[in-house]
Amino acid sequence: MKKTNPLLWMAAFAIVVVVSLSACNKAASIENPVGSQSVSLYLTDAPGVFDNVLIDIKSVWLLVDTSKDTRKKDTCDWDRIGRSRNEKNDSSLVWQNLGVNPGVYDILKLRNGVDTLLATATVPKGAIRLIKIELGSTHTLIKDSVTYPLNIPLNEKNYVLVKLKGHEWDEFLPSRSRLWLDFDVSRSIIEKNGQFYLKPVIKFFTVKATASVSGKVTPKEAQSVITVFNSKDTAYALPNHEGHFKVRGLSDGTYSVFVNASNGYKDTTITNVAVSKTKEAQLGLITLKK
Fold it and tell me: Which of 30, 221, 256, 274 has an alpha carbon within 20 to 30 A of 60's alpha carbon?
């Protein structure tokens, strides 16, 4: 039986490694398809128990992969690529500024199915692999009518990187797509020794591909917090002044809805809530009692 030279195996392995790495570092050799696409990016909120959460957003960028086969880049180091927008190693990766108005956004105004259109822009046609949200330095929150600074922890990044595969957007018209970013306040704000720190947790969804639950809680004096959960997912909502709430971005499945009441009112749990993206689960009026 003929033996294989181990040096040949090592050489072949080296070639595979070089080919894999070159997918993220090849310069000016990948043909870009002609064309463009219109994208709309929305911001919404999974709430926390605060009066206001004011986030300073400087800019929002998209990284578009214009190569013919974006799957070759699935193993790329997207954290490294997203760290700097000045890298020119791969001509198929194109950064695009969405032209978001820089300023302070009150995230808690976006709860219960309300969202804001951050930007609509025309970008090169291709797979959108990164959303980079660059943050300013003026973040605050208001709790019980008291204003607190909201600081980014030392040595933490001043940006948020949302990684995508490229197929997540809802193409509602030819070459026109949209995506929602859900800023999870309850997980993004950390309180330690009387200080508040911002470590943004953002997930993405499309209304078309996910499910929702809505209802109304009364009386408003109960100041309820809504938790929609099952073994795989948990989401939150704060009813508005009229008691209405809505939770979006859920996967299909069966959930429980826990209403955590205050001011002497009893908690309640609604079980076996069937949630489907084809139809919103409407719970109707939930009346709490003391």
Answer: 30
